[in-house]
Design goal:
10 strands; 2 domains; single chain; EXOV; Exonuclease V, mitochondrial; two-stranded parallel ribbon; single-stranded DNA 5'-3' DNA exonuclease activity; alpha/beta
Length: 375
Amino acid sequence: MATALRGSLVLWASRMSRRPPPPTSIADYVRRRQLLSVTDVVAPSWCEYEFQYGVLSQSHLPLAQRPSQIVTPEGNTIIPSYVALQNREERLKAGTGVHDAIERLVHPDQVQIRTATMEDRWALRFIECAAGVAAARHGRAREIPIFGFLHGYPVNGIIDELRREGDVLMLSETKTRATDTLPTTADQRQARIQCMLYRRLYDDLHSAIPLSLAEFARAIGLKSERTLSDKFIADIIEHPEALPWAETPAQPSLADIAALAQESLRQHALPLSPVMELVYVQRRRRGEDEPGEVGRVHFEANESLDAHLDHVFTLLDGSRMPRGVPEALSSRCNRCAWRDGCEWREKQAQIIADDAVLWKEYSSISDEALAKISW
């Protein structure tokens, strides 16, 4: 069984009181961040308006710490459904529980590494990435950090699972379901794009000219030459078995760890299978030990990823306003906490109302009058 590294943060609680005000737009949110998440890049594919409202309401915070209402870039004030927000948090919590249960099966031994600085945290991520790829070469690994650049923006995420199959690695993502049925192909799109993004970032890490981890660290404002904290160094010295290399400098910097991780990736990274996998499981019910598998979907990367990236980055950089879901996918609105005040839904309702007025006016015109109209 593989050993999994886990970080324990020891410094950052003091920053809570200095939390900045909520962003005023998606572009403002992106400008403030030195680093985007894969979720930032993927989530708009479900609904761009829901993504915008989540950004404005700081949906990454616990419910009690979020604003009770938001003001949109169009000047509208929207109050979300608290019940819908609670339900969403419960679904996310249940999904996290499923992932944790699977990881405990794959990585029963957990090593805690204390981190005291941002450089420590990223050194740990570089180690986890290299260790995960090395473990996958020998069988299976879960929760592998991945990072790189997309459209010039630094991006990071976590690959759910890498599993060796012959001479390649299968990239697999587990998704939880409330029902025992697979989602439609349209509703799988977000998960498929997520997998294709992970694939792109992984390929960039072990290409002929690989992503430089040191360059990535500089891009997100880290001080790579600074010696890592005493707590971090003590913990990695105590657990050399968790590192995918034999020797570590006595007083390593982030640059040292980046170089070691880069070399480990060069040695251990196998190519990915052209086929990727989505595993759908039903959320555990009370009293059940393991989630039940609903089914697996296999697919290959295609040109839809580049089309999505070109489209979504015009939203993220503020070049355009968000667009809502088409009518055929409006069932997605049913569980949305922003449904009642959604600007997109109001715009579509107004279009329908205007069409009804036009049709009423048109239908009241006599046949003789219609015949005289020059089309």
